[in-house]
Design brief:
mainly alpha; two-stranded antiparallel ribbon; 2% strand; transmembrane
Length: 565
Amino acid sequence: LHFSRSLLCQIEMEEAQQPNKTETPGPSGSTSEPDQTSSTSGISRNWGWMVSGIICINILILGCALVSGSAQNNAQIKASDLQIFLIILLLLTSIWMIYYIIYTAREENAVVYRDGHAGPVWLRGGLVLFGLLGIIMDIFKIASYVGYLHCESTVKIVFPAVQLVFISIQTYYLWRHAKDCVQLQKNITRCGLMLTLSTNLVLWMAVVTEESLHQTTVPDYSDNITKLYGRNLSINHHSSCGIFKDAYYYLYPFNIEYSLFASAMAYVMWKNVGHVADVHNQHKIKFRFKDVFLGPVVGGLLVLTGLVTFIVYEIEMKKSSADTVKKDNALMMHFIMNIVILTLMTVSIVIGCAIYKMDHRERVSEKNPTRSLDVGLLVGASLGQFIISYFSIVAMVATGAKSYLNRLNLAWGILMVTQLGLQNFFIIEGLHREPFHEVHPATVIANPYTLQPQKELSSLEASHMDTKLSEVLTAQSLPSHRTNHRPKRLWKRWVLKEICVFLLLGNIILWIMPAFGARPQFDHDAETKFYNFSMWTAVVNIGLPFGIFYRMHSVASLFEVFLTS
């Protein structure tokens, strides 16, 4: 929906920018013919936007249908059929990216402008890191499937090999060209970028579906009312396939984030096709952790404690023994840890919002697609976690939240909703504020040689004034006279930096836990009993991938807010 609205707005903007030259008065007062060149150019631009949008929507819908069909065990669509479709997409996208790289290298005026806001180095660095881990995952997949060639389809080996090549080409392509504002072959470029975007989104859907099925295999219980520790069945089943299969499942979260990073960068490039960037209005912001101490220390301790509790929780959940007391204690520890994290983050955000009220920085008036995409993805991705939390709150309130686990679950849901709303406000406000600038007061130097008219200087007076001028210049050059106006701004900057770093680390641990297998939504059976297994599984498997992406996207956005602070 965000993409479709953006497409329509872009077409309307293009039409609004076209000059109305239908009837232009001539020298004799008559009307001349319409400007055919301008009209043709406008039609060509609109054609490019529409065709590229149609390509993207069709690929996404077809891919969604194939992913959904292959997820059913009794369906006629096999996993190999989906992989053949993905191989075709990967090959087409790779060919187009190679063509783009060669064409822009040979054509001198293909890329005249570059958007300074698009593809910052830290975002491209994250893409490279996730890409390397995705390549390692593909290597593990190939090693895992080689031993099963006699009973498995050859496509299972070909697909990770093709994906490995695709990740390598795409990572280089986005690292070099993420800032491009293409001025030649604009329609072809728009279509190619929409192909790139849709390919990455279909890959994301396929990996998320496979990961969800891996985590939520339906347990074969006779009455289906006992606690759902059924993910043990899935894990034990997969562990017999070899150590490589266990290894690449733990690399899935990085591959998921890689696809989303690449999709976002391709979308910004698509918006920048034909865009004339204003190079004079781009701020160069330096990255430094100067004077930041409390946020990294407290946030680091939070991450470390969260990792320890998460590991203990996962160990207890994966044990085959049905010791419900230990499992309940592990669940309680997990709930309490999440409640502590969310409480500390909420308090920090409230302090940050209060500072924004006292902050008199101007709001950014310049429009750029990167910031619009950041805000859209932030709000849209948070809806996934909002849905899960509100479903949990309704289930806990309806059942009375009688047990201590239910009460903890209710508190977790309420805090999650509060933290998400406040964090969205804090990040959006930060992204729309102008960066802090060092403002030095104007230096006024007294001129002792300025005399009243018709006055003369004696040699003694002149010597005295030379000494006085030297003293004035020395006094004006002292740093103490320049720092009188800075303390108020400095403490605001310091507090905002501390809050941004702390929230960044908090979002990292909140990403790690669900991304690497924490599923309290299934380990605690209250919602499953209330909604039934199939409905609750649909809610979690749809909402959780967006919630996981929200945390990683929040990390990127908070880093941007930190830089402007």
